[in-house]
Records
---
Amino acid sequence: MSANQKIRFQWLTVLVGITLMGGKFIAFYITSSNIILTDALESIVNIATGIFGLYSLYLAAKPKDEDHPYGHGKIEFISAGLEGGLIALAGIGILFKSIYNLFYPDELQNLDIGLAIVAAAGMINLLIGYYAVKIGKANNSMTLIASGKHLKTDAYSTIGMLIGLGLIILTKWSALDNIIAIFIGIIIIYSGVKIVRTSVGGIMDEADFSLLEEVVGHLEEKRQDNWIDVHNLRIIKYGDSVHIDCHVTLPWYYTVAEGHDEIETIEKLIDEKLPNNLESFIHIDPCIKTSCSICHLKDCKERREPYHHTVKWTLENVMLNKKHGKKQA
């Protein structure tokens, strides 16, 4: 998906969010239900963060320049962090108002109409959220993933709201409105904090172990005899761009051209597993005497020790900044 397509999709989420927000506040006005208010307040957050997400997608799509040699993709983590913070604040507001109304309740009315409006809004949010997460993961866009998760969380909380509104209609127990809203507020706070945590991890270049494991597993599956080891592997994400650094140990007598060809083959393998916009920096290390014990090359005229065993490439040894050898058996 191109940058313009992602921006258009984000525009769609904003416009839909504005429409749904209007409907939810109308539902709150005619019912005075705190359960419905929680949904309405989340819609404000959806719109605010959606607009900032639009800006972040626009900025992330800008090409690399002299001031930003790795591109502008990190802005997506800031956008997701802002969204998570606002979600948490909305949850705190819901929590306090619901607790207040437990002691000073408002009279509920027209709950059947409010239930119908909230149900329609929840279904729309679920569909858009599902596609936003799907598109975001396919294109490694933190902004779309965060927006989609927010919309899906909104839809899941709507299900709880519908159950709560139905119980209130059946039992006529109005205090249940505030009790359910308190639980929903806690869930919303947790969701917001979790998004902030993921955002901070991205800004701090936290290791994505699932992505690393996927790459290592693919290289292990496709490894060739002259690739003696891969070590010091690191992956950093910048929006929809992925940067990978690693060292590859090759026979010491390879020419520059031969070494380049092997690295190019490895890069193509990594590109099969990682999202688009891959940028790699692979350093060649020459083999040493202790490398012979794990080297598969059968016709090597420079072998100093007999082949002993194969070292399987795993996260534990591939991420280390040291050549593999007999001691790692």
---
Amino acid sequence: MRLIIQPDYEHLSLWAAHYVANRINQARPSTSHPFVLGLPTGSSPLGVYRHLVNFYHRGTLSFRHVVTFNMDEYAGIPEDHPQSYHTFMWTNFFHHIDIPPAQVHILNGNAPSLEQECANYENLIRAMGGIDLFLGGIGPDGHIAFNEPGSSLASRTRIKTLTSDTILANSRFFDNDTSKVPTTALTVGVATILDAHEVLILANGLSKARALQQAIEGSISQMWTITALQLHPKGIIVADEEACSDLKVSTYRYFKDIEKVNL
């Protein structure tokens, strides 16, 4: 696993955006061989999306031959709800780039059969040849996507009941009213994420410090699903200085030192 330590959120976002853009451009995607990109929602990726949009407007990046799969979506709220992840993605990213709408995939939280929707999502990812790069965030409790503590590390796309901590954290998007936050969601599984050819996780702020410490120094555990990234051959975490606050000094220095070689 690589740990890339950046001074702050802005530098973290720019590093990750350059990484994503370089991977797309290096792949030289085409209609017959698109680049398959997994994407998250939440506050962590907003800076990355802003930079990717800027790259597109500068003419250095195109999403014409990119296919996307989002990590998750709430169950039971309309797609056009202000806090649905459909709305989030189109407002903050897709409306500002040249990706064809048919190449955007987001789980349907209002499907007639949520179980079938999840199965179809997994089948579609496989039919595309898997995800080339999965970009993700990390929760304060170490969850990735909506794979809360206790989630199986072999899990696949499924319906997930949200914990009280996640509902409380997400209530800031629902007028700070926990009663307005959906209690269930559809989410890709931990194994779905680990199947990607590369996984790039963003970790910013003091609230992510304990989760990052577990991810890097802790044992692999379903109680901290981010620790599953230790099993991935091409897993990367990009963190700012605040998120590194709980790391041992020796761990911090080790990753700072080896990344000098990779520059």
---
Amino acid sequence: MIYFFYGDEEFNLSNEIKGLKNKLDKNFIEMSYKEFDNPKFPDLIAAVSSQPMMFGKMLIVIDCIKYFSAKSEDGGFDEKQLKQLTAALDNCNENLDIVFKAYSDPEGKKKIDKRKKIFKLLSKYNPKEFAQIPSYKTAELESWIASQAKSKKLKIPANVISLFLFQVGSNLRMLDSELEKLKVFAGNNAVTEEMVKEICVNNEDLFAFIDYLAADDKAKALSQYQKLVTTRHPLAILLTMHTMLHNKIQIKAQSLKYSQDEIAKMLNMHPYRVKLEIQRLKNVSLKNLVRLKENLTSAEYKIKSGTSNMDVEQEVEYALLQ
């Protein structure tokens, strides 16, 4: 069986492949499961022409995201090669399952160009798109959390799910990981709001830190920063702040033109988070936010290029307090 899995939701896509892998004979897993990373054409043909041995089913996963790059010409394959690939796929061994995997990272540069002939070719073979659930679709995310919790036999009331989503965010892999932690902590008991606040990942301390900086309250910001570096690496703080500041700048700039819900959709954020940000940014200068972002960008460059005259913690601190 040939499958074509693509989309920008890595967690669901990986789980689908995991389900297929779990059906293989675990005694022969090293021989019955193979992965290939964007193989060149001869290696691709060899892979799809594989012959399973006496251990039954074989699963081959082919990461093929580079085949859909806008910069490549049909994955680098010409018409003759595409016909050869079609013939190879149509004549696959019945005990061979092949998954063509194309994860399109929404935060990176890996994008799928659906105009490519290779996309149209693979779309003939059991295609399934794994789309990321936007943060503003809270009902859909809460439904996913409820379903995932049920599969883990974890009791979590609706009101607790809402808090859980708001606190952890919309990344499915992170949500699943935090549900696992709650399962260990709660056992057969129902999850409470107190459990979520105590056990689950929380960036509220970083939010508070950013708020002090945005309000130009450098004394409180420095105090909060010194607390943060006891549990986080300064560079990790800096990188997280980049994303948070980007969102604040966008919200501040767009709040004069668009509604709260419209901004939430544009930025893929929880609507209530947008509402809070608009309130917090009411008396904050957009100019100050942009200046802070520029300072952090400069600090990151100096740290990564090795041109800084200070250690990492001091470089980040200097950028924050300029």
---
Amino acid sequence: MGLLVVEAAQQSGSLITARLALEQNREVFAIPGSIHNPLARGCNALIRQGAKLVETAEDVFEELGQYNQSSIESQSQLDQTTLDLEHQNLLKLIAYSPTSVDTLVQESGWSVEMISSILLVLELQGYIASAAGGSYYRI
């Protein structure tokens, strides 16, 4: 239904994917980043061109017309035990203050791709939130 761009350099495959998503009449979402981060320039450019700025998972649900307050509330009541072991282990490594992806890679020994996938799930389920500079903190 849509495409969420988390990080993208000014010339990247993510921007090509975003263009293709627009050509298929899909919504394009982008997470803004620091003006000093070269991997945020593509996202910031997408937002300037009309992509939906995303700060929370609810921003995506709202735009896609699937936002339902009761489902968000029920998700927030989920116990950590409903997560599989990998998700639980990564969640334990995320502090209540911003924790960088690099720190998570070092502490877990997992690939950036695997951590990014788990972070997305944890954020959509309301366990964590993203912070400036590509960091995440526990809610």
